Amino acid sequence: MTMSLSDQASPAPGLLAEASGRFVRHRLGMLGALIIGILILVALFGPTLAPYEPDKMHFMSPFSEPTSEFLLGTDDFGRDILSRIMYGARVSLQVGFISVGIAATVGTGLGMIAGYTRRRAIDEAIMRSMDVLLAFPTILLAIAVIAILGKGVTNAMIAIGVVYTPIFARIARGEVLSVKNEEYVQAARALGATDGAILIRHILPNILPPIIVETSLSLSFAILAEAALSFFGLGTQAPDPSWGLMLSESRKFFNNSIWMGIFPGMAIMLTVMGFNFLGDGLRDALDPRMKNVR
């Protein structure tokens, strides 16, 4: 029995089932998936689950300690910290997914072009541009982009997307270089397929695993970057809830209201940890050389 060209160009269903089985057996990966699943539910249903509106001020209860009325306490304006953390989850996930989506789409596209093109000048132009971006410290480059575009969560997403584009470009280029001379690619070329069709239908499905893993890991760094930008007043703007902005606002009150900073910090820590665990599990599951998982 012979295999069609499309069968050769796409991962076999059996391989996907095997990878899924390895991921399910990966304890840290499943823990990360559980944490992220809970976070997504909080982000989706935060307005329903939150006990108060995020900007509602309880003037008689500023700096309230955690109580049965305010489970995580209140801030200097009497706003419920739990409600603001729940609303802030939506901001963090939105920034993370959109910014990494920008980076993955643009970076993978550029990397595929650089790796597949037969013109060395195009490859050099793309990759040297990526090297220039990589030469800057991550947060400094993001601040520079925001300085050009202006403050705000939308521009923060664009800035973070620009920062992580070179990472995806380098990964995609390396993977394309390793598969572009495979038999199924040569067969597609011999049958008259265009370069665009070869890249999208035959090469892209075979380079997706490392890109998927990098996407998961980059989400954690993107959320950290958003928190840092909001901490510096360049991302989410008050009074909108943001974990980084909440940390920034709590700096002046650490001595008498330490919970104002602890709980947003814990939210950031758990989210980053969840995405890192998820990425670790995906890496081990999608790598065929990994036989034993934790």
Question: What is the distance, rounded to the nearest whole angstrom, between the alpha carbons of the first and last residues?
Answer: 38 Å
Which consecutive residue ranges, at least 5 long each, have pLDDT under 50? 1-8
The total domain count is: 1
Described by the principal axes of the CA atoms, the overall outline is elongated
What is the β-strand count? Answer: 0
CATH superfamily: MetI-like
Helix tally equals: 11
Order of helices and strands: HHHHHHHHHHH
Briefly, what CATH class? Mainly Alpha
Structural class: mainly alpha
Mean pLDDT across every amino acid position = 86
Q: Compute the CA-based radius of gyration.
A: 23 Å
Q: Say what the CATH topology is.
A: MetI-like fold
Summarize the biggest pleated sheet: none
Kindly state the percentage of residues in helix.
over 70%
CATH architecture classification: Orthogonal Bundle
Portion in beta strands:
under 5%
